[in-house]
User: Fold LysR family transcriptional regulator from Maritimibacter harenae.
Amino acid sequence: MLMRKDPLPPLEWIRAFEAAARLGSFTAAADEAGLTQAAVSQRIGQLERRLGVALFHRQARAIRLTVEGEAWLPHVRVALDGLRASTEAVFGTGHRRLTISASQSVIELWVLPRLERLATLTQAEISVQTLVVGAHDAPEDDVIRIRYGTGDWPHAHRARLYDEEMIPVAAPALAAREGAWTTLPRIACSGPRPGWNAWAATFGIPTTPVPRLRFDTHLSALGAAKAGLGVFLASRPLCTAALEEGTLARLGTEALPHHESYWMLAGPKALSRRQWQAMSALIATG
Assistant:
């Protein structure tokens, strides 16, 4: 069906379409925009009537794009990104307050050393929220989130913090003991990173001694290692500072790479493009 030669549809109709297509739901698009579901549905209906085509297939509990909707969506996103970027460039707009959500481990070991510089570069007040242990949700809202995984989130902005690899570390006094380090007590940490069984399978060391200390955060396990309580299989990027200052010592030269890592995720409501570029350049090295 041919499109009628009417003026460009109102921007709020187009934004409603893009949000619903990105989030897969009229309700989610309404929540993001601070509107009712009925208002979003009405705007998209008006847009479809203006264009003369259906953009979504409506089902009982879901929506999906039509062929015309799929064809138009990339152009809409490019146009909205261009409008946002030009507004920032011409008027210097940016968010005055940025909120970062991350685990206590990555906050203390990765974010805090960069926080003062980050506030200067983004010209914003920084609010840091501690992620509850075990929570992995990452909604695309007005919060910048740091999450561990493979990077397959739908966010407009994504940056890998670093390349993950695991190395055995211990307090210098414990590391200096005679004999093979593989006989020393071991510390374990729950979570998605590979542990001692993966290390043993890769490098052919015994699976014993079995760890008698287990922590639910990387930060706590590192603290136990610094206290001389055992050998911890640590994330090399997160323990670099401790190695450099001498509170931990690396045991051997082997390292175990891992395909997952921390990722910084954000949507356009969380920060401006300029602020994202500054943040990702400073925080993400992977």
Remarks:
- The first helix runs from residue 11 to 23.
- Residues 11-91 form a domain with the Arc Repressor Mutant, subunit A fold (CATH 1.10.10.10).
- The CA atoms of residues 38 and 149 lie 35 Å apart.
- The longest strand covers residues 97-102.
